[in-house]
Structures are given as C-alpha cells and as structure tokens.
Amino acid sequence: MNILVLRLSALGDVAMTIPAVYSVARAYPQHRFVVATSAFTARLFINPPLNVEVIGLSKEESRGAMGTIRMIGRLRKLSVDAVADLHNVMRSWLVSTYFRLQGKTVAMLDKQRTERRAILRNHAEAAVPFVQRYFDVFARLGLKATPQFTSLFPASLPPLPDNLPAKATEEWIGIAPFARYRSKTYDQEQMQKVVTMLAAMPRGRIFLFGARGAEEKLLQEWAEKRPNVFVVAGRLQLEEELALMAHLDVMISMDSANMHLASLVGTRVISIWGGTTPSCGFLGYAQRREDALMAGLPCQPCSIAGSDRCPLGHFRCTQSITPEAIVSHFKDTAI
What we know:
Rossmann fold; 2 domains; 6-stranded parallel sheet; 5-stranded parallel sheet; 10 helices
C-alpha cells in the first residue's frame, strides 16, 4: 500500500510529525510512505526508514489557489492508495478531497476544537497530545503503531559543523530565546541575564540560536566579550543546527520550533511557556513535563498556538519567571 502523508508547514509542526511517520513506517515495512511538505521542512527528514520518501513542494506549489492546483497536479501522478492528512487546513483538505473522489481512503487530523475551547475556558488538559494525534490518523487507516522514534541520529552522533570547537568536558547549553508570537517569547532583558549567568559557569559553553537579521544582531550583542558564548544564528544551515543540537547537554527554549528540533535529536529541553502552556498539547516529543517552566497565572493559557496580544494587556506570563529560577532549575535538575 502507498500512503500519501500531508503536512505542508510549519517548521515546528512538521517536526512533530516525524516521530509518528518514522514509527509507523518501521512498524509497516511492507508499505510505502510518501510525505508531501514544503521544500524547506523536507530537510528535517534525516535518516528516514527505507520505505519513506519525502517530496519537497516548491513555493509555487504551496501558495494560493493556483499553487494548490499545481500541488494536486503533481501528487495525482503518484500511485496513492490512502491519504494521511496530518494538517487539516484548506490546502490539505482540497488535496484529500481530490483523492477521496478518486475512491482513496482518507484519514484527517482531528484538531479537537471542542477540547481546545475547554482548555482556554477552563484551563483543562489537552485530551490527546498533538504527537499522539498524528499516530491516531495512521491508526484510522489501519496502521496502529507505538512510538519507536528516539532521534534523527539513532546510531551515533553526527559530526559537528565546521568552525565549531570540539566538545571536551564543558557543558554545552543551547539557548533559543525567540518565538513567532510575543505571547510565547520570554522577556528579552531577563533572557540576557540568563545568558550572563550561564556564561559565568566555569565549564559552560553557550550556543545562541535564532534567525538571520535582527535576531542575529541582538544575539551578537549578548555574546560580546564572552569567549564561551557562540552565536549560531545566521551561521549554520538547518541540518547543521540539528547536528549541533544533538551534541548539546540541554536546550533552553520557548514553546517554539527550536523546542521541537531539539526533541528530534533526543536533547533535553527546558522550555519556557507564556500565553501557551503544555496543556495545549504541544510539549516537545519525549520531553519531561517538569522541565516546562511557567508562571502559573490563572489566565494561562490564553491561546492554543500563540498570539501577539495579551487579552489582559500585561504579558505578565512572559515576565514573571525570574532568570534565577531558570538557571536554578538547570543546575538542580542536571542529568
């Protein structure tokens, strides 16, 4: 059987599908799995099972009505027996509908909107974490499986990118201080203090992750005159960042793509939560709930996926966790 797997974007969401895709593919080696995603996120699928093929969709195939038509035109040439729609947005729904009209079996992600409203209204727990929901989509196609995924690099650590120092006896700490939405981003002045405190550790080496441009410039200011602080932003390709993350002892991150990337390589993540909380279902794969730090305010969570506004206008959730609390948690729970 040939199964088309749809998850078109975004980086962190595609990352969360990989434990399910790889686990199911390993459980059913007699089937072929073809993953359709953006050309950029296709680069996440490192060391896939032999029965997994990844199609990277161009921008022309990923945007607007004409892009969707082009995408269907490309995917219809595949020999598809069933569709696992792990996205359930308009674009993937149109692709799934096309194959359903061709008589193919389709299973779509259940976004559990009723449960999501209950999370925001009553601060209830997510009924099913998002990674498990991806497993459930495959189960509805008759492909039940248990998690078998540990890392994109299961056999051995990948080589470090060029121009990085060899790891000796230091503790390597990654810090990813940015997120897409303001409600998910820890106060930057306080995060700079976290960097300062960790950089003062006698055996600490700090790696700062972010995007090119403004984030890169800010991180360069944080690293100035600190020889043990290295700015990754703007210097490494995605595959190289994943390789570096695999060598880290810990990643300190927002509820963001970097949390999920570090989870893909089996690295422990101390995650900082603001307008979203782990109850929304997005805790990194195989991460410990006790490593998810939050203020514990009665208004949390106020959003499932993040927002640039605070309903109460104060953003206290991203300001109430002290730098000392973050550093103490790291020191007290070191593995």
